[in-house]
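Notebook B, p. 112. Complex prediction, attempt 2.
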Amino acid sequence: MIADKMKDCVKNNSVIRQMFEEGKKLEELYGKENVYDFSLGNPSIPAPKKVNEAIKEIIDTEDSLVVHGYMNNAGFEDVREAISNSINKRFSTNFNKNNIIMTVGAASGLNIIFKSILNPSDEVIVFAPYFMEYNNYIKGYDGNVVVISPNTQNFAPNLDEFKQKITEKTKAVLINTPNNPTGVIYSEETIKQISKILEDKQKEYNHEIFLISDEPYRELAYDGETVPYITKYYNNAFVVYSYSKSLSLPGERIGYVVVPNEMEDSNNIITAITIANRIIGCVNAPSLMQKVIMKCIDEKTDLETYDTNRKLLYNALTSYGFECVKPQGAFYIFLKTPISDDKEFCAQAKKFNLLLVPGSSFACSGYVRIAYCVSEEMLKKSLEAFKKLAKVYFKI
Amino acid sequence: MIADKMKDCVKNNSVIRQMFEEGKKLEELYGKENVYDFSLGNPSIPAPKKVNEAIKEIIDTEDSLVVHGYMNNAGFEDVREAISNSINKRFSTNFNKNNIIMTVGAASGLNIIFKSILNPSDEVIVFAPYFMEYNNYIKGYDGNVVVISPNTQNFAPNLDEFKQKITEKTKAVLINTPNNPTGVIYSEETIKQISKILEDKQKEYNHEIFLISDEPYRELAYDGETVPYITKYYNNAFVVYSYSKSLSLPGERIGYVVVPNEMEDSNNIITAITIANRIIGCVNAPSLMQKVIMKCIDEKTDLETYDTNRKLLYNALTSYGFECVKPQGAFYIFLKTPISDDKEFCAQAKKFNLLLVPGSSFACSGYVRIAYCVSEEMLKKSLEAFKKLAKVYFKI
């Protein structure tokens, strides 16, 4: 009854449900306040006040037929204009409204790009560890995923292997910085190196290779770190953005794709992406939220709260003997497990009511992801549990 | 650079853009108030007041992290519960929250169904005239569209041809009632006949054939007409609903899919559809709007205004000599063109500043679609232009 392509997804789903139900069971047994759920990448900071103010202002003052109505499939022109101006101001770029396509979050942004560019058997390169939901997006348009193995020294991309794995079939390279699950930010030098490699390979194979940057965590960078804007380093580059984390609006499904004029055949690509937005069923990004974004263009999330959690957790975990690369962005710590079996380690952690995600779910076993987008109070309470977990493996 | 599958879409797009630009040119030449645009199926009635009141109430009283946050990919449980209760009350069905999956409008509802059930070369049957965007949804998952030719006598489905065209490969049948573009509502007798034919063919081929009902116009039924609820007549039936027309929220992208327990393998189908919602990039239906729907569950659009337009236009057009089947629902009149070339007729109409859509865009040449979701004032003003158009062909 179910499409063949979907059968594995449906089968795997029961595993996720099982994890979820085990978590629920723990909560029932020990009380919700005594279970430390670090498994979800869901913002713990509410949307800025200005968001709800903007909603009220819009519905009180603007024409309901416009606010809740259809517009061009790429989004309201004034919203796209405001976003392009904001990007230009922040990153010294030169975009206009035509370069911005509003999307139902970053996930649909990636889908409409892949739908627009992939032919069957085209290859898309990703760097492990990575958000494995990308596989579903790429396979949805019959593309093949090519995984570059993790560079566990600092989780910068493994560029030697990257160079070797680019083939005639490589259509795109997908990066995610600040990274889920490592929290690492790719340096300007790294972006330059990736760009140089791709420039050379484009010449070698005599066709374009796209660089796609998935950037839901762009605004979550700590210690004054900056995230290079890739269109300044490489012409055939897409930026995929979401307000899920930057404005804590994950459920509202609002984001955009940037297609620069410098991209080869950019006009047709923009048309293709806009049509794909329509025919995958999104039609357009939610209308009221588009207008909210325009009014909240300079709003920021409360970065300091995440940063406090980051420091607290990093310092505690390393003091207990755990090893990890210090995260520079996002809200994840990717911890090396003291035993090679990360699933076994997660099972052990659960005995102390700690819910973590095994690194093998990000194509990098021997690690676990800890999502510290939780309340500071919960995080502080959890440290005792992490300490007990450490004692299983280390003498402390 | 562009995926092969997308190339035709991009090429055709220039034709649509051309039409749009010609319309703009007319407006510049004659003034917007003197151009009668009947080409768009966009509600002309604002959302009920309760919608904006509900928005304010929700953001004033509910937790921002919940209102704007992630939830189960199928949607908020209380919203789905409320919708299932409302359907049960209105149509004497027996659904619960598990039978409802919230979607980014009806378009994504159809996409996630096709993604969940279609294997390459599976056939989906549609009845002409029909909304040809369906082709993109079906082909997106490598399905083939099988078109049943129009029954121009009353635009009920041509059941003899239907019976003949069902094959081993038929995976689904897609109906749309009240219909875009004809405004016709399929009678209970018709639904019973379709169901009987499908029951027999399921036995003959020994596999399930799904009946999918696309129902964005369900609430737009005039003269006390009712729209049969298909799950009561056929077990393997999906209902795809949208609030675009019923609450005038087309830009907000909010709707749902109903999967009844009576469907074969319903649990796995529900899981597949929920996963498809996630992996096509929607993730979930916009969160605030889900909550708005719950508070507006018994709200209705101002049907009378559309009905006034329907009667005015139908009476005027037939009095001028035009022929058409009287529409019972939606907000369209499907007019027989006095000449066989419907594109030529549209070009002629444009000379009187009337913008219509040729029936060939709905797989039914020799007709034009007139979308009367316009202001009554504009409609009244336009009648003189329709009269002039009639005089080209008829002695009146």
